[in-house]
Design a protein that fits this description.
- The structure holds two protein chains of two kinds.
- By secondary structure, chain A is mostly helical.
- Chain A is built from eight helices and no strands.
- Chain A has helices spanning 8-30, 34-54, 58-83, 99-120, 128-131, 142-152, 156-177, 185-189.
- In chain A, helix 1 (8-30) runs antiparallel to helix 2 and helix 2 packs antiparallel against helix 3 (58-83).
- Chain A is globular, with a radius of gyration of 22 Å.
- Chain B is 65% helix and 2% strand.
- A two-stranded antiparallel ribbon of chain B has the order 1-2.
- In chain B, helix 2 packs parallel to helix 12 (296-319), helix 6 runs antiparallel to helix 9 and helix 13 packs antiparallel against helix 14 (354-380).
- The chains are: A mainly alpha, B mainly alpha.
- The interface between A and B is large, with 43 and 52 residues.
Amino acid sequence: MIAIAYALPSILVFATSALLVLVGAVGVIVLKNPVHSALSLIMTLFGVAMAFVAQSADFLAAVQIIVYAGAIVVLFLFVIMFLGVDRREAVRVEPLVGQRAFAGVGVFITTAGIIALMARSHWVTGPPAVSSGGVAASTGSGNVRELGTAVFTTYLFAFEATAGLLIIAVVGAVLLARRERSVTPEEGLA
Amino acid sequence: MSSWMAAADPLYAHGVSWAVLIILVIRLFIAFGVLMTAVIFMIWFERKTISDMQSRIGPERWGPFGLLQTVADGIKLIFKEDLIPAQADRFVFKLAPYLVVVPAFITFAIVPVGGTMTIAGHTVQLQVADPPMGILLMLAMSGISVYGVMLAGWSSGSKYPLISSVRASAQMISYEAALGMTIVTIVLATGSLNTHDIVTAQAHGIWHWNVIRLGIVPFVVFLIAITAELNRPPFDVVESESELVGGFATEYSSFRFAIFYLAEYINTITMSAIMVTLFFGGPAGWAPPIPHFKWVFPIIWFLLKTTIFAFSYVWFRASLPRFRYDQLMDLGWKRLIPLSLGWMLLVAGFLISRAWGFLMGALVLFAWFLLLRAFDLGATRAASDSSVLATVGERPIPGPVLRAMTDGEEQ
């Protein structure tokens, strides 16, 4: 294991963010009302953003809040409000036979995998992982610059591929939503 | 760690001591106090100015020129009964006002109010916080304040607030895209996300201000988008009295309503300040060479510029009629987003070289032309006589859909 002397503030920040993430994540599953679940998902996202800030990945933290909390969960809420599912869900029904057992096995494998990885490898990011990457530490915004350089040089193809994927998704969504149907005027006016 | 923090704020240059901590707390309290006082004056200023524009007198009873009217209104509001509707989701109903007001306060933290001053050997930036994410904090916070509005409407358990909140969230998210694009343009030209750096880059005279350096277009887009983001007239379809009673805050009373009101005016002031920061050099301006008081003049310049924008919001409200909802969405998606995106590419091109700039300009013009042609085709197209897709403004909403949207399951 990596031996790092953590300062008290770092521990406090980590504990707070971990608490936010875990309480939020449990809340998403446990709460009965979908809107409350969405709110608790926002709490999780804030916890993750806080962990990013603690790793001095400020840009990621900001994007985390702008994109996930600011747009995607709003979209969830939108769907919840529009479709009127903001009421108690019937959790006893199983659409797929034996899905609980499969889910349990999946959770076990994932958790065991994560624990095994954390125990046996060195990719766990301690405090020095991001912040002391050479020049980045000396300038306040060097972090953002390095991230931008990496995305637009080394990982340009992946970046552009993602952009293409998103465009395809948007075009597909528009195509599906703007389906033209012929109806009588009375039906439309109702 | 200490070198990184020193880059963020010169206050931490010599480590964190009790003096630094006290300065931090004082700075925080001053910012808070100034903001609250500014809100009181802003409400008075708006009412008085609008009265003038409409040939009325406006508030005049409390204090000189009616200056204490806002204080009286505030005290009255606090002593009113605090109602929670029977259908309300009580927890979310209570939470929503804070989701609006907290981001409003946090956003002001990144505004550089003045230059730097020296207190007891410490260099102090006249700015509450200067995080490395800088101006992105503003976008993040405006993303969070959407929740307050959205959940306030939903948790009221009442139909008009719900319609209002759906409108509000759609509007705020739509205009955030154009807003983000103009901010990207500024960040490209500055080369930094920090508000402090953005201001410093504009400090060398009026020709370096972003409003002129980037061409007037980003500023215009930003002004329109930020007005829509604030839900202020002429984009206040969220609380258009003739359609939606009082908008998302209809069911709120007493202190909770006061919080919404407070947040609205804090946001107005903050966004005026952000506009000054991004486009008009922030506290930059001529300072007479008076020893020991040099730090005062940037603050005066900043306040002066911010007041001009605060006035312009009041002016908009008094002179412009409200947009219809579909017009508002058209403006956001079909005009502002392509315009700001194209302008960003243009600026990026000119930052590389003149040739690239002109090439980019030609490409952007071509793209805009294609887009306009597409809009034209889309607006006039009719697949058949009985096509359900009429122009958005003329399309009737089917009765059952409307009823399901507003009444929920009670039918």
